[in-house]
Amino acid sequence: MWLGYLLIFIFPVSFALGAVVTVPKAKYSPLFRDPGEEDSNVGPLKVDVTPVTNRQFLDFLKSNPRFLRSRLAPLYADRGYLSHWTGDTSFAPGHGDFPVTNVSWFMARKYCEYQGQRLPTIAEWEVASDAQNPAVEKSILEWYAHPNSALRAVQSEPPNRYGIKGAHMLIWEWVENYSEAILSGDSRGGSSTESRYCGGAALKAKDPTRYAAFMRFAFRGSLTAKYTSKNLGFRCVQDIGRSK
Amino acid sequence: MNRILFALLLWLGSTSATAHEGHHDENLKAAPLLAGASVWQLNSAWKDQNGASVTLASLTGKPLLVAMLYTRCKTACPIITDDLKAVAAELMRKGRLVDVAIFSLDSFHETPASLSAYAKKRNLPANWRLYTGNADSVSELAGALGVRYKRLKDGEYIHSNVIYYVNKDGEVAAQKEGLNSPSEEFIKKIARP
What we know:
heterodimer, A: 3-stranded antiparallel sheet, 8 helices, about 30% helix, globular, disordered N terminus, B: alpha+beta, 7-stranded mixed sheet, two-stranded antiparallel sheet, 5 helices
């Protein structure tokens, strides 16, 4: 009897955090296309239901103390790393289930790797988050217009059609290949490649009305591997056939 | 809609300003953080043009000119290579022999043999080392240096054209961006005792 109550109370929580859903194979249409770039297939893929939380990240740090805020080598993150935490292993009461933010690409990657997972690619993230669904676009834009809204517990976010929570309107999320978002100036080529690199990003846009997708592209284009921000977190994915 | 866009742009603007500020701050306070900022602490494995296995840690202790490119590249990469030659020669004239390390972005095709062929074809000096590693090693090093790159469907890459000066502690101390860009400032920073 008591065990039954325990299961009821504990199971949903442990299930919601760290749970993965399978996102079926889908087509990804990039907003910006480089020469020869076509639609690509994504998945099937196991994707974390929720973004990684402060509590989950703390558990990871306990096993990997060299990544504690006070010990982390500056190569791996800027000074904002976990700056919202109150100490090396503490954060504000009640924030355990909030998404962890102020983490760099290096640290997000290390977390996923430790779990036997990896960061999603841009294509995987865009598909899994259902970002290409026009019905979602409007509300995403509204959130982008108020980017500093307060964080919330990840479980309470509404699931999208794949069962994924908090992909929009909560935080921005790291992707493995953020550096592929090259807006301009980064890679001006030689004479014969001038058009490839210098055309101006907007001209490459497939559908310029997709502001939300453009904002994500621009945001990724501004990221560096050490960068941290109070509204930038991450979730992990794993390839089918690999056990977590 | 315009109002939303305006807010977005404002916010993005402030985001990138913050990023730059942070970077600037780091440069100013780099001195006490030398070891921890070393790019050579990345635990990745590479092979050089002779097929020898090399860890990044083994590159500590000597300043290096570093670039990431790939040897099949026909457009930008030969120009970076020429830029590297010119910078190394200018440093030599100023009495500084600085070795060169080229890391390939192309984990799919690059091999010690293709690196060696490139070194021969481009007549690269003996103190130049070329390295190839797996996709993970490439993305970590690119992240640490700040190289952006994208593999295209035809197997070519779009990538940053940057030459880095990495000091003996493994820290990026100067960089020259763009092809055929002026190198006076870059060389001045390196040549400074």
